[in-house]
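Cross-check.
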Amino acid sequence: MQRSAYAVAIPLGLCLVGPLRAGEVGERDFPATLTIDDPAVEDEASLPILLHGPSGAGAGRANDFDFEIDKIIADGLEIAINDTYAAPEPAGTRRGYGWQDFTTSLKYELIEDEPTEIITSVGLVRSWGGTGAASAGGDPTSSTTPMVYVGKGMGDLSEDWLRPIAVTGTLGYQIPDRPRGEARPLDFGLSVQYSLPYLTETVGRAVPEPVAGLSPLVELSYTTPTVRGGGTTTEGTVAPGVIYTNDVIQFGLEALVPLTRATGHGVGIAAQFHVYFDEIDPALAARLF
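Predicted model, tokenized:
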């Protein structure tokens, strides 16, 4: 089987294990954000997230098609499979094209407190070195990244117009299998969201459709090496945008504004198509097996 076929067939097989869904903390549902991972444990998929990055110094833009499947395999425990296909600009050359390193992750929900709308999860992200094309940024060295994910909704505030606000964050430290010469980057992410679905359904304020399904947000994604060398530099983006959510699917659109010179210049775009499997058909696995 070809490399690209594995990237599709393995995740689709996991989707048939049996649908469960977590991720809602009381009346709060944290949406799947585009540039950082959300703190929830859910049955879902991004098919895909398109990242049309800022222009690089002396080079074209990066076009990344990011595919991810998340599957609950036990109470509070999620497994995820992720891969990215790179197709940079300008076109006309095969340099830089191809699949990047295959990634798997485990996420476990530690805390879910409904009155305060707090959710906390921990995880391990494993990047499998040598599985991606070197020209597309594949690394011959595998690495493991311990992660912490947090989310806090403001539904416990007294002011109705502030209650739809939510904040999420991520923190990870990449540990390579062969540490010599590797940069060991520290990854930090933050999002601030305003949920109009929460405003209408929980607070009870009338908002017309389709605006009622929107969640304006701003994301911050930042990575910096903790060891000199390794060819890694400090990079980051600020991504203002909006997410539209209904019971089954989610669409997201954000601008990608570079924070450092190494990130590039100009403004990129991130677009997302996201599916919640359990909302499509909760009995799918039961009928198939």
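The helical segments are 3-14, 196-203, 277-280, 284-288. The first strand starts at residue 24 and ends at 25. Passed to J.P. for a second look.
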